[in-house]
Each structure stands twice: as C-alpha cells, then as structure tokens.
Amino acid sequence: QVLLVQSGAEVKKPGASVKVSCKVSGYTLTEVSVHWVRQAPGKGLEWMGGLNPEEGKTTYAPKFQGRVTMTEDTSTDTAYIELSSLRSEDTAVYYCTTDTSVSGTWASWGQGTLVTVSS
Amino acid sequence: DIQMTQSPSSLSASVGDRVTMTCRASQSISSYLNWYQQKPGKAPKLLIFAASSLQSGVPSRFSGSGSGTDFTLTISSLQPEDSATYYCQQCYSIPFTFGPGTKVDIK
Prior knowledge:
The structure holds 2 protein chains of 2 kinds.
Chain A (H helix, E strand, L loop, with lengths): L2 E4 L3 E3 L5 E8 L8 E6 L5 E8 L4 E4 L7 E6 L4 E6 L8 E8 L6 E4 L3 E5 L2
Parallel strand pairs in A: 2-11
Antiparallel strand pairs in A: 1-3, 3-8, 4-5, 4-9, 5-6, 7-8, 9-10, 9-11
Chain B lengths: L3 E4 L2 E4 L5 E7 L7 E6 L6 E5 L3 E2 L7 E6 L2 E6 L8 E7 L6 E2 L3 E5 L1
Parallel strand pairs in B: 2-11
Antiparallel strand pairs in B: 1-3, 3-8, 4-5, 4-9, 5-6, 7-8, 9-10, 9-11
C-alpha cells in the first residue's frame, strides 16, 4: 500500500507561487506514477496533471499548462507541484494520488493541502 | 476533452433502499470509468474501477455497470455510512475528467 503525506496549508497573495510536497512511502517514487487533483471549496474534483507511464513524462491539463510544474526528488521519494501566478480561483485543496496498474485510476491519496489565495 | 455528466445531482434515500446513479461520457470511453466516494473533509476513495470491478476492501453492496458512454453505480442496500458525494471519472484519455458528482443523503 502506498502512503502519501502532504505538506501543510499555505496562504498566498495573488500573483505569488506555491509549492506543495507529497512524500511517498511503502514504495519508491520510481515505482509509482504521481498525479495531482484539486478541489475548490464546495466544488468538484479537477485533474491537474501527472506522470504518463507510457511516455515516461509528465502531462499537464491544458487549463494549467504554463502555470504548473510537477517535479520529483527520487532521493527523498517526494513529489512536488508548483503553481504560479496564483489567483483567487486557485484557492482549493490540492491532493496527490498514485496510479494503480491502470493509468488514471487512483487508489492511494494524500490527505490534501489547502492553498488559500487572498490579498 | 471528454465531458462527464452525472444524474441526479443529489438524492435522499432511506437505510436499506436500493440507490442508483448514472454517469454519461460525451464520447465512448469503453470501460475506462472509475467511481469514487468522497466524504466532507476527506480525500476521495476508489470504489469501482474499469466500470464494474470492485476495489479491494469495498463492501459488496456497491456495484458498477456500463460501457461506451453510459454507466451506473448501484448501492444495493443503503447504509448510514454511505452518505457522501459520488464522482465518476474517465481514464480513457488525457485530460482525465470527473463528473460533477451525486450527493447522497440519508433520510
């Protein structure tokens, strides 16, 4: 079983950037494919991007292209998502999750990180 | 992008009732359809993958069916702990997309 533990809540001003971490345990980062999903308050779930195992590269949802960067540190088994040019609509809980044997099917989830964007 | 719709948006049912909710994709996604349960303040939980396969540890009262564009999640006998929002999600093509959810309340 993959265990995912995320960093704590963040408060940022509009225009700033935020970086959220996701520590993987139970498996190494090289053995899993990490994805990021967010949920604005009272809203639904939105996929932001993740590792495409077939291509071996990270794919971003078009909505976030150019504003989001997903990286990994295999020495610490920690994945990161950085979102720049923050606006109020980016206020949300950000979740990391990992694929099962099927890409895009997510059984393990982090606890979520609330990012609040406010002036 | 593949658009996912769900109906109803909410429902209220009694303990022991059979509950059915539907999910529709804007184009055929074969059986690349997952169902998640989410309770307030918690991460989503995978219930059903590949349209009809029950995730390990999920009670057998949950079942899924369908293929192509139309899918169904059924709770055969509603329990108090099933109060939650249920989301369908397609993993057929990127960008992966979710439906808007069906909120289930207990009468």
